[in-house]
Amino acid sequence: MDVTELLESASLLVPEEVATENDISVQDVWDYIAHDEWQIALSLLEELGGGQPLPYMFWEQLAEAAEQLGLERSVAWCHWRCSEIRNGMIRADLTLRPPTEARRRTPISGHGVLRPMWDIGNLSPTGGVAVSIARLWAEDMPFLEPGGRATVRLVPLTPTHWTHVQTGQQINMHEDQTVAGTAVVLEVHLPTPAMPAG
Question: Under a CB-based contact definition with an 8 Å cutoff, are residues 61 and 6 in contact?
Answer without folding.
Answer: yes
